[in-house]
C-alpha cells in the first residue's frame, strides 16, 4: 500500500494482491458472508472456471458451517488448512487462506477486525505439517507470538510519537504534526506519499523529513537517490 501511494510500482501484480489483503483485513463483510465477493471473484466472469470454483468454495463453506460450534480461533486454523485441500488458492499461494483465517479468528468482534497470524521474524503458525492437534498447537503459538510482537510494535510507536512531539515543538505550521501522524500510521513513507496524505507541499514535506532525519527521529531505508522511503527510529 505504501508503494502504491508513492508511485513505486515495480511489480504491479504483487501490489494489487497486497492492496486486496489490506482492504480485506481492515474492514468489510467477512469471508463467510459471501466468499466470492470477499475474494473479488465474480463467477459470471470466470468462464470455464466458474463451476469448479463454485463447487470447491461450496465444499469449503459446508465444512466451515459444520464446525460452527468450534471457537473462532480453532475454526480459523481449520479453514486455513482446508483451503488448499479444497482445491482453492492459486499455485500454492496461501495469502488468501491466511487473510480469510485472520478474519474468521476475530469473527466474534469485540473491537478487532482481524487477528495477526504472522509478523516479521516468523510464521510458524502457518506450517502445514503434522497431525491436526499439532497444527492447532503451532497455530495458537504462532498467533500468540504475532500478537505479542504487534503489541510491542504499537508500544514502540506510541513512545516514538511522544518523543517526536517533544522534539518537534520548535517547528511551526500544520505539516510537522500531520507528517508525524503519517509516520506513526505507516511503516514506510515516501515524499510523494506524505504529500498526498498530509496535503502539504512537496517542499514542506521534504524540508520536514530532512529535519526529522537530522534529529534521529526517522531514517531513509532505500539508500538510493530516487523513490526514497523513510521509517521511524524506535
Question: What features would you describe in this structure?
Answer:
The chain is mainly alpha-helical and 234 residues long. It folds into two domains: 2-115, no CATH class; 168-232, Arc Repressor Mutant, subunit A, CATH 1.10.10. It is built from ten helices and three strands; from the N terminus they run ααααααααβααββ. The chain has helices spanning 2-6, 12-26, 35-38, 50-66, 72-85, 95-105, 132-167, 175-185, 191-198, 202-214; strands spanning 189-190, 218-220, 229-232. Strands 1-3-2 form a three-stranded antiparallel beta sheet. The two termini are 22 Å apart.
Secondary-structure map:
Elements (H helix, E strand, L loop, with lengths): L1 H5 L5 H15 L8 H4 L11 H17 L5 H14 L9 H11 L26 H36 L7 H11 L3 E2 H8 L3 H13 L3 E3 L8 E4 L2
Antiparallel strand pairs: 1-3, 2-3
Helix pairs in contact: 5-6, 5-7, 7-8, 9-10
Oligomer: single chain
In total, the number of strands is: 3
Q: In what order do the strands lie side by side in the largest sheet?
A: 1-3-2
**N-to-C terminal Cα separation, in Å?**
22 Å
Q: If you average the pLDDT, what whole number results? A: 87
Shape: elongated
Helix content percent band: 55-70%
Poorly predicted regions: none
| Rg on CA atoms, Å | 21 Å
Order of helices and strands: HHHHHHHHEHHEE
How many domains, in number, for the residues?
A: 2
The helix tally amounts to: 10
Structural class: mainly alpha
Report the β-strand fraction as a percent range.
under 5%
Largest sheet, in brief, is: 3 strands, antiparallel
Amino acid at each position: 500500500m505504501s508503494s502504491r501511494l508513492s508511485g513505486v510500482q515495480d511489480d504491479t501484480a504483487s501490489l494489487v494482491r497486497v492492496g486486496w489483503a489490506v482492504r480485506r483485513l481492515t474492514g468489510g463483510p467477512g469471508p463467510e458472508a459471501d466468499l466470492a465477493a470477499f475474494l473479488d471473484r465474480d463467477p459470471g466472469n470466470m468462464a470455464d472456471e466458474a463451476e469448479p470454483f463454485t463447487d470447491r468454495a461450496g465444499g469449503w463453506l459446508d465444512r466451515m458451517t459444520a464446525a460452527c460450534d468450534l471457537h473462532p480461533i480453532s475454526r480459523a486454523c481449520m479453514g486455513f488448512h482446508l483451503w488448499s485441500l479444497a482445491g482453492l488458492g492459486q499455485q500454492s499461494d496461501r495469502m488468501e487462506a491466511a487473510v480469510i483465517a485472520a478474519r474468521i479468528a476475530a469473527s466474534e468482534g469485540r473491537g478487532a477486525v482481524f487477528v495477526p497470524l504472522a509478523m516479521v521474524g516468523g510464521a510458524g503458525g502457518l506450517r502445514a505439517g503434522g497431525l491436526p492437534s499439532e497444527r492447532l498447537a503451532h497455530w495458537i503459538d504462532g498467533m500468540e507470538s504475532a500478537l505479542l510482537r504487534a503489541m510491542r510494535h504499537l508500544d514502540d510507536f506510541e513512545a516514538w510519537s511522544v518523543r517526536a512531539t517533544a522534539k518537534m515543538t520548535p517547528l511551526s505550521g500544520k505539516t510537522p504534526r500531520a507528517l508525524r501522524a503519517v509516520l506513526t500510521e505507516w511503516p514506510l513513507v515516501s515524499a510523494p506519499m506524505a504529500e498526498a496524505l498530509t496535503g502539504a507541499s512537496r517542499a514542506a514535506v521534504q524540508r520536514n523529513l530532512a529535519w526529522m532525519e537530522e534529529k534521529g527521529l526517522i531514517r531513509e531505508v532505500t539508500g538510493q537517490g530516487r523513490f526514497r522511503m523513510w521509517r521511524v527510529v524506535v
